[in-house]
Amino acid sequence: LTARLQGFGTTIFTEMTRLAIQFGAVNLGQGFPNFDGPDFIKEAAIAAIRAGANQYCRMSGLPELNRAIAAHQQRFYDLSYDPDSEVTVYSGATEAICATLQALCDTGDEVVLFEPFYDSYRASVTMAGAVPKVVTLHAPDFAYRPEELEAAITPKTRAILLNSPHNPTGKVFARGELEHIAGLCKRFDLIAITDEVYEHLVYEGSHVPLATLPGMRERTVLISSSGKTFSFTGWKVGHTCAPPALSAAIRCAHQFVTFCTATPFQHALARAFVADDAFFAGLIAEYRARRDRLCQGLRELGFGVLAPAGTYFVMTDIRPLGYADDVEFCRMLPEQVGVAAIPPSSFYEHPAAGRHLVRWAFCKTDDVLDEGLRRLQKLP
Ligand code: PMP
Ligand code: GLN
């Protein structure tokens, strides 16, 4: 293993899902739905395979999908992107993040991340030869301190990577915070990389893409993924929207990472992005009910529940139940209780800030949430 990758170990998702399988645990850890997305999307993928759409497609994405993504950005956010020169399709948001950092960061450049961060960020920044500069979102409300963000910016800063709605906290950044971040990007001539994969899972307030703020579209790489919105995480189709010069640079990396993304899934998702309003409203209503069910159950068990405004995760404080260490708690849980969860301290550069927290996923049917809660009554 190269020096670059030393210390990254095995991702916490692999570790916890392995324990869940080994002990037959209810998996409230890794964030994937235990149900499929809509039939019309599945049928479109099957039809595309039958119709022979099985070879490489255009490197930057199937033209119909790029057009559908551009139409989606216009419809929900009033953001205009040219499908051919400004929208690009990848094998998941994970690849989009990695290719963006490869394309835009030189060795020694610094990228500001908010911790806790989705675990691929720090690895992707490091693989690009850049250096992560980490700003803490402080529990329990996960606000950042403006002076801490300002202090993280140096002459070497190239980009701020912002994830809202935020995994694992469920935080949706407030407009005032976005305005502050946008102001810094403009003042110090930084690129904003925004991970918006949970854009349609917002229960309080609304999702505001940073690119919609004045002066931000031209300096923002907006990243999202169809995995969360359409409940097909295993299809791994993500995208970026960015001005032509930034898109061209990122494509330069993408063409040598994967070149292009699975063709039949792109045909299917071209239908998905133009789904009717009832689909998107139904998605939120279903997830809100799941969120409320799990939060209520965890509260009754005695956890300190930090109810999320967005995403399909909830953070809980484990101290009221007499536990102090998230990793110990989550390693014990599958075997002793038959439930799996995620210890968020692996999403921190300063793990002490997250030791008392545990993340639970509610992208699960009611029977699974109820069974998980029932088993948790046996907590030692
Ligand atoms: N960013 C965040 C914040 C995520 O939670 C995830 C999904 N786990 C991803 C990116 C990756 O998305 P994809 O599966 O499309 O690569
Ligand atoms: N994004 C999902 C989560 O946060 C899982 C990602 C993964 O398995 N790498 O749980």
Automatic annotation (TrEMBL):
Pfam families: Aminotran_1_2 (PF00155). GO terms for molecular function: kynurenine-oxoglutarate transaminase activity; pyridoxal phosphate binding. Keywords: Aminotransferase, Pyridoxal phosphate, Transferase. Residues 26-376 form the Aminotransferase class I/classII large domain. The keyword Ligase does not apply. InterPro entries: Aminotransferase_I/II_large, Kynurenine-oxoglutarate_AT, PyrdxlP-dep_Trfase, PyrdxlP-dep_Trfase_major, PyrdxlP-dep_Trfase_small. PANTHER family: FI04487P. This is Succinyldiaminopimelate aminotransferase apoenzyme. It comes from Nannocystis exedens.
